[in-house]
Design brief:
Layout: E1 6-9, H1 15-27, E2 32-35, H2 45-54, E3 59-62, E4 65-66, H3 72-85, E5 90-95, H4 101-104, H5 112-127, E6 132-135, E7 140-144, E8 160-163, H6 167-176, E9 179-180, H7 190-204, E10 215-222, H8 226-243, H9 245-251, H10 255-264, H11 271-277, H12 283-289, E11 291-293, H13 295-306, E12 312-317, H14 322-328
Parallel strand pairs: 1-2, 1-12, 2-3, 3-5, 4-5, 5-8, 8-9, 10-11, 10-12
Antiparallel strand pairs: 6-7
Length: 332
């Protein structure tokens, strides 16, 4: 049975290799590619433009940018530009970022719900080619518009998806966004509460849960050698559990494990520190919150997420043979 499938790329691969991966994913029937922007390593916009330029049908999403570091005018014009390159294929995935990274670069993430809501309200109006005046707590604009002189002047079809983790953000996503990017490194049953919260938000806007698209990031390490696949994932989880506390909390990992890993890893973490701490991540946890192992094991785990509300798996190849992963989940 044909299923929606997407690829997630971060910085584990050479960017030019990424171009080959997205072309191959398109050929094998994948629906979309999502480019990460999390640590201070690789921004999302440049790769998205590159992926758009070498594909014809693949949707291109930011997975996810944050709503703090780009002025709202720049944010809207950036996605207008991407839509010029790949009309009706661009998705704006946006999230509230996380500490300590945001704090370390001078961002005070106060009132994240208000800040996100204002961003999305104004972004949608600008992409609808409206002239906007808005005086909020975070966004203040006076008579601005996307000043298209040469090119398409009609409203742009750029759906906005929120990368929500916390309960309040999840509920607001159901109310104001076209979709949610469900987080990775969580067990499939995490989605139960997420579905309830999204539905609560959707009802406020007169929508149903089916009106909210629900793609989900899934860490996926595929290898014919089970142990090799597991070890690759273990290194990733070591870093994420220490540096992204919102993911650690959502995954249900004990604070004791997180604290021990944090005592070893610095910022940014070195390969040596990760190697020293990775034994603290048990295989049971890896199997519970990722799709890792042989191709059949990975497919079975991804099916669990789909059976729990995910509408489109966004597969994050943490290492190994990316084309084997694409082949494992190929739709044609």
């Amino acid at each position: 049975m044909t299923q929606r499938m997407a690829l997630y790329l971060q910085d584990a691969h050479d960017l030019r290799d990424g171009l080959d991966y997205v072309k191959y994913a398109e050929k094998r029937g994948f629906e979309a590619v999502w480019q990460a922007e999390s640590r201070l390593v690789r921004d999302a916009i440049v790769p998205m433009a590159a992926y758009a330029a070498v594909t014809n049908t693949l949707k291109i999403g930011s997975g996810v940018i944050n709503n703090w570091t780009r002025n709202i005018g720049l944010l809207a014009s950036t996605f207008l530009t991407l839509d010029d390159l790949a009309p009706d294929r661009i998705i704006c995935g946006i999230g509230a970022w996380w500490d300590p990274l945001a704090r370390n670069v001078g961002i005070d993430r106060k009132k994240p719900l208000t800040a996100m809501k204002e961003t999305i309200m104004v972004m949608k109006r600008l992409l609808n080619m409206e002239r906007v005046t808005f005086d909020g707590e975070f966004i203040h604009v006076n008579g601005i518009e996307l000043d298209v002189v040469h090119g398409r002047k009609e409203p742009r079809n750029v759906p906005i998806y929120i990368g929500a983790t916390g309960d309040n953000m999840m509920e607001m996503t159901g109310e104001i966004a076209e979709g949610v990017v469900l987080n990775y490194c969580v067990p499939p049953e995490y989605n139960h509460k997420a579905m309830e919260l999204l539905l609560n938000g959707a009802k406020k806007a007169g929508k149903t849960l089916d009106d909210i698209d629900r793609p989900q990031l899934i860490v996926c390490s595929v290898d014919e050698d089970h142990d090799k696949a597991i070890d690759t994932t273990r290194e990733l989880l070591t870093q994420y559990l220490a540096q992204q506390p919102h993911i650690a909390k959502a995954s249900g990992v004990s604070q004791d494990i997180v604290s021990k890993i944090q005592s070893i890893l610095g910022w940014p973490a070195t390969h040596e520190q990760i190697a020293q701490a990775k034994h603290l991540v048990p295989e049971e946890l890896i199997m519970r919150i990722t799709a890792s192992g042989t191709p059949s094991e990975a497919k079975a785990k991804v099916a669990e997420y789909c059976n729990n509300g995910c509408t489109c798996p966004i597969l994050y190849p943490v290492g190994g043979d990316v084309k084997l992963l694409i082949d494992t989940f190929a739709q044609r």
